[in-house]
Amino acid sequence: MSLFRLSLVILFAESFGYKILIYSPQIGHSHVNFFGQIADTLVEAGHDAVLYVPAFYEEVKTTGAKLARVIERPLENKLPYDVSDVLPGTWTEDGRGLVQVFTFQVMIGMAGNIKPHCDMQLADKKLMDRLREEKFDLGITEVFNVCGYAIFHNLGIRTHISAFATNIVDVISSGLGVVNNPSYVPASFTQLSDVMSYSQRLENVISYSTTFFLFQLLVRPYINFNHVAPGFDIDKAVESSAFAFVNSEEFVEYPRPINHKIVFIAGIGVKQPQPLDEEYERIMENAKGSVVLVSFGSVAKSSEMPSKIKDAFVGMFARFPEVTFIWKYEKDDDVAANVTNVIKKKWVPQNDLFGHPKLGAFITHGGQNSVIESTNAGIPMICVPLFGDQMRNAKVAEKRRVAFLLDKRFISSDSLSHAIRTVLYNQTYGESAKRLAQMIRKKPISARERVIKYTEFAAEFGPFDNLNSAGVRLNFFQYYMIDILLPAAIILMLFTALSALALIRLTRLLLRFRMENKQKQE
């Protein structure tokens, strides 16, 4: 953006735009980038979007924004939970379905960090006064980062929008009135489709119930901020959200019940691929055949794979000399040193590579942003999900026939070779990926338009309760109509029992009458 255009945007924002506070703690690169992209989009639309970015994890240094004003807050004290303590488990622990111990280690640890992190911010009078002086019209925060709601409460921001940097997470979306029917809505951390067998539906019910009760038992105790935010009620805060932005693509996601608050904005930050620099352009042009990108994101590093999995990848690379593999690999070592068709890089311009016609496939962990970028670009995937929502992301991409799914527990040169052969040389995956990308590109209302229009509407008319679902306030027995079905079942059973008893007595009476008539005749 030119300096002149940027000046006009800022001038317009100061004159006519809304003032919007976006809470974006540095809990992960994908989360920070998602909220930074929302902020920049609103700035381009003429609003004064302020991105408040408190430090959270030392590994995350970016703010995600290029245009929005940014207020940063350093981390005063080290948080009690270190995510790096369990990261080696990403490659070995089973994170599917009923076995979610690793996922819950991460979730509970993050919740344990959120409370002291939030307490420090709410107790920072200088910070609160500075934010209060801005007189914000609207706040935007991630549902899981509940501190944002408490900050809005303390600042007197009456209208807010919730957001998911992932797909809709079942254990926390119920507060928005979203229905999570386990008969055909897969639980967030499972690897199930929306079409399930009896045993899979049973697994889904148990998984959803386990996740829900563990969340209530182990996570909720960490999200009470009444001591630093008097009168704050997290349940009411979530329920009163004007809308909920979801970083998910409706043409990829499983069809499921939602309500009028849910607004899908996947791809809000997907930029047009830029020309590759000289080095990468040379790599692509010198490739004899297709190029395959191998990247497992910023959390699960390829360099930290167990040696057995590294050997499996290297063995697969060697079987396809006609294919060039660009491997995001974070260390300098001798792994794959003797395989000439492998290029190891500590960083790769992923989105720009997606724009090159020679890129034939993408091997990924199935992170939400990677799946979104790949589907937007029309690049078929080989997904090796590791934990959390990656399991679900990979499964839904498989359902759309744009991804081949591999189980990390059974990775071998043979399984990887079969996946590469299938995705590169079976036209189904490439054609499905291209068609899906065209559908996304030609949606009637783009993600950018949705963010701008729904934010402006909320700022103009909020707070409002027109979209609040009455189902949120029902207890378990009312919600599932047990208070109606149970008495009805009891009445039906009593009626059946009485009918059976009456039938037995009538039968006995008829038999007695028949016997008496027979005796009289004799």
For this entry, give a set of tags:
522 residues, alpha/beta, Rossmann fold, seven-stranded parallel β-sheet, six-stranded parallel β-sheet, 18 helices, globular, EC 2.4.1.17
State the gist of this model:
The protein has 522 residues and is of the alpha/beta class. Helices cover 45% and strands 11% of the residues. InterPro entries: UDP-glycosyltransferase (IPR050271), UDP_glucos_trans (IPR002213).
If you had to describe this structure to a student in words, what would you say it looks like?
This protein is of the alpha/beta class and 522 residues long. It folds into three domains: 3-80 and 116-178 and 230-266 and 445-473, Rossmann fold; 278-441, Glycogen Phosphorylase B (Rossmann fold); 480-521. The chain is built from 18 helices and 13 strands. The chain has a seven-stranded parallel beta sheet, sandwiched between helices. Strand 11, helix 12 (368-377) and strand 12 form a beta-alpha-beta unit. It is globular, with a radius of gyration of 28 Å. The N and C termini lie far apart (113 Å).
